[in-house]
Amino acid sequence: MLFSGISLDHKKGTASSQTLRLPLPKSVRIPMSQHMGTPCDPLVKVGDIVSVGQKIGDSAAFMSTPVHSSVSGRVTSIEDYLLASGKVCKAVVIETDGTQTVSDEVKPPEVSDLKSFVEAIKQSGCCGLGGAGFPTHIKLNVDIKEKPIHSLVINAAECEPYITSDCRELLESPDDVIDGIEKVMHYLEIPNCYICIEKNKPEAIKLMKEKTSNKSGIKIVSLKSSYPQGAEKVVAYSATGIVVGEGELPASKGIIVLNVSTSGFISRYLKTGMPLVEKRLTLDGDALRTPCNVFVPVGTAVSELISFADGSPEAIAKLLAGGPMMGMCLYDINTPVTKTNNAILAFTEKLAKDKSDKTACISCGRCVRACPMKLMPTELEKAYISKDKEMLRKLKINLCMNCGSCSYVCPAKRNLAETNQLAKDFIR
Question: If DSSP codes are grouped into helix, strand and coil, which group holds residue 417?
Fold first, then answer.
């Protein structure tokens, strides 16, 4: 596999912006579905008094991780909430009391071996902080005797335009990042670690090289600034040269990939016991007068962030959670921040509207050259239109990571990336 990808205007205007702290909102709405897998069931009821770090949602399902309160206050309602994905889950609404009283449940976990380490990460509520939201404890729950892990890959590529929250994690919390790495390497007996950073972050690369100069087994990998370098299988290949095939997980090849902010969180949790109750986000876009990076309690309404960044809701034509390539459009400005959010982007009509009309494919092959998985988007589109499941499988539709590169380069403005997602749902 030779990674191709595309070149994008980075627009990293907030890369040098020290992370600020959002004033405590009057209330938060905390969805019970904040990660890939089964939603949690609420553990509290209306009228209950809760504290910061208190567990308020949990599930016995394998693919799940607990949800904790990001504030102290009173539970005012438990309601059905429509997620941006179209699914419905319960959400706990908490009126803050302004004290941010920490729960008695918050204490550093006792960790002595891999089993207790994995259990601690589960109880922390940690899931992949790069956006996918895969429960971290499941990723780390490996039988290292049966399947030894030879490489830990720390994904700090941050290849999407605008987003700089991971860059700020490196610059503001480098010791936490390294400590989290060393903890994972120790308990999973991993000999090698590759911290992968795109070359458009020279300050972060320099700092991490200095911090790891005497760290055995940890190497800084400077990646070409190309999209989508941060995709799990792509960054695993860039670091190790190993191809993770269709239907395979990196662990099957002896690799574990963690987001850099996940690594930093693991360190802080093991030292303090404070679960995942806040996120560092990038706020940017031409509808915001003061783009910035900010620490936000989970459950805070996006409208609070827009106001903090001096944005006008009336000027916003498109609101995104995540980057412009793979982010999700938000239908409601009061959508709550979740664990997996790393950016909120707000654009005016000037940048949001694509005035080009879709035309017929001209067989230029740009989409094929741009695809990092070497797929044939135009042939996939034809197979989907024909509802040909066998051909979709033959063309490896499940390798599509929805990076959007094909749609981005298409001169005919065809909805290739969107069609691929419909095709994957169709063959399921």
Answer: helix
CB 376 within 8 A of CB 410: no
Strand partners, 74: 49, 95
27: CB partners within 8 A, 6+ apart: 73, 76, 93, 94, 95, 96
The domain defined by 114-272 folds into Rossmann fold (3.40.50)
Distance CA 158, CA 322 (A): 11
Phi-psi group of 217: left, alpha or beta (phi > 0 → left; psi -120 to 50 → alpha; rest → beta): left
**In whole angstroms, what is the distance from residue 406 CA to residue 8 CA?**
13
> Taking the alpha carbons of 323, 329, 334, 337 in that order, is the dihedral positive or negative?
negative
Chain centroid to Cα 22, Å, comes to: 20
Nearest residue to 231 (alpha-carbon basis) of 421, 14, 4, 413: 4
pLDDT, position 246: 84
As a whole number of angstroms, the distance between CA 407 and CA 325 comes to 10
Q: C-alpha distances in angstroms, 41 versus 32, 139, 203? A: 7, 22, 43
- The H-assigned helical ranges of 212-288 are 232-240, 260-272
- Mean pLDDT throughout 320-338? 93
Least confident span in 102-106, 349-353, 377-381, 417-421: 349-353
The DSSP code sequence of 122-180 is HHTT-B-TTTT--BHHHHH---TTTS---EEEEEE---SSS--HHHHHHHH-HHHHHHH
For the chain, domain boundaries: 114-272, 366-427
Checking if the pLDDT of 1 tops 50, the result is no
Sign of CA dihedral 106, 108, 110, 115: positive
Model pTM score: 0.94
Cα distance between residue 291 and residue 345, in whole Å: 9
- Element housing 297 (H / E): strand 292-297
The distance from CA 306 to its chain's CA centroid, rounded to whole angstroms, is 20
CA distances for 43 relative to 58, 71, 261, 338, angstroms: 7, 16, 28, 18
Closest by Cα among 281, 299, 276 to 291: 281
Residue 341 CB contacts under 8 Å (≥ 6 apart), including other chains: 279, 281, 321, 322
* CB neighbour list of residue 260: distance below 8 Å, 6 or more residues apart: 154, 155, 156, 166, 169, 170, 177, 195
Alpha-carbon distances, residue 379 vs 63, 155, 361, 417, 419 (angstroms):
34, 31, 11, 12, 11
Angle between helices 174-187 and 260-272 (to 10 degrees): 80
* Bridge partners (DSSP) listed for residue 156: 197
Residue 67, both tokens = 């949800």
